[in-house]
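I'd like us to work through together how a protein chain folds, taking it slowly. To get us started, please write out a protein record for me. Label the sequence line and the structure token line clearly, so we can match residues to local backbone shapes. Once you have written the record down, we can walk along the chain together.
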Amino acid sequence: MNIKEKALEIFESLKEKYIHLRFKNRMAKDKLLLRYIIKELSMYFLLMFLFYFLIFFVNQILVMMLKLLGKNLPLGDVILLMFYSIPSIISQTAPFAVLTGFLMCLGRMNSDNEILIFRASGQNPRLVILVPVLALGFLISLFSFFVNDYLLPSGLIKYREQYLVSISRNPFIEIESNSVKRFNENTIITGEVKNSEISDIVFIDRDENHNTRIISGKKSHADTSSEDGVTMQLTMENADVFVLDSKDKNDFSLIRSAVMKLNIFESAFIQNQTGVQPNEMTSYDIYKEIKKIKKNKNHSKEELNQFVIEFNKKYALSFGALFFAFLALPLALIFGKQNGTFAGLIIGILISAAYWALIWIFMLAGYRNGLNGFIAMWMPNILVGLAGFGFYSVMMRQ
């Protein structure tokens, strides 16, 4: 081997070592940058998760619990009801926390010129940030799905059981002065309620023959009952029972009594007590129930659609976090050039409110108007995804 060949071999060896060392340094820098981005995104997500959690907790839980405490319900029962309600709050909180938290984080990085530094150092900020954003959004979606599919049904079942126990201890939780309350096919109209005394109560329901029955009393005394399934026993003075025949509208019966005892069952206060409801099932159980309903040729389309809505609801609400993560990047880079953190907060709250409204609009359309359950629950996410692609194309052009 001559000197020239030896020099070329040494040069190639040094070149390979240089390239390897440079690639190794580049990989180390990329890992460091990736850890930094994930750390920042996680911190802002946790901050906004706490923010939304407190909002939902105060709005949906504490207001109700203050009402229960006002009815002299034991503090232990109130705490248990609050605890069983936590999964429903978490399921609502996670997607909105992803959107607002990621917007604030990426907006801050944009307004602090960190995105410009990435670009100046040879990095593609769209790619180097998009990967951790989507990865973290996917992991949060999986966590949210676990809450929706396992913890939420268990919490709803436990909540219902505890609420029945609470009502059996204090039936006046659901009885208020001068109020009209409808539960299933039962309607309760009350006058003044003081301690255990109720004036001018009217109870409307249907008897075993599906005849409309109206029971009224001038003055009633309420007591708890030890009988299974009986929530309240009313001792009614000067009671009237008016029954309208369901077949002949001109036929009716009227019974008057000086004193009458009326047992009010749990079903008069808690809706849908027959079996486990779709929102109290896991996605696998709902899927089995859908297959079972479809096998019945005379199945109700409304009942089937309710299960389809609940099945898709578990996935759509959970993976809404992933759609929001995709939307957050282009919005932050487009609108977060100045005061990125504040702009991200405002934009995140506005989009969250609009998304929440869309969820309820499409869900009600599914329950009441028969809109396909898949479309009803996934349409808000589809709209978010389309908006994400639209803003991403604007970002690429910029």
Q: What stands out?
A: Residues 17-28 have pLDDT under 50 and may be disordered.
